[in-house]
Amino acid sequence: MQRYGWVGFVFLTSLFVITAGSLPAMALTKFFNQSQFAAAAGTPLKIFGFDDRPQAGSGLNGTEYVSQGLTIRSPLPINVVGKIGEPYGANYITSAQLNSAPNGISNAFYRFTASPSVPDDLEFVFSQPTRAAGLYFGGLGGGGTALLNPTQVRFFTPAGQLIAEETLRSDHAGVIRGIEVWDNRLFYGVVSTSFIGSIRVTNAPNDGDSVLVDDVQFVPAPLIFPVTIKRNGYPGPYYVYDVTGRAAQYTADETIQLAPGTLHDGNRRTRAGWSV
Question: Could you tell me the pTM of the whole model?
Answer without folding.
Answer: 0.74
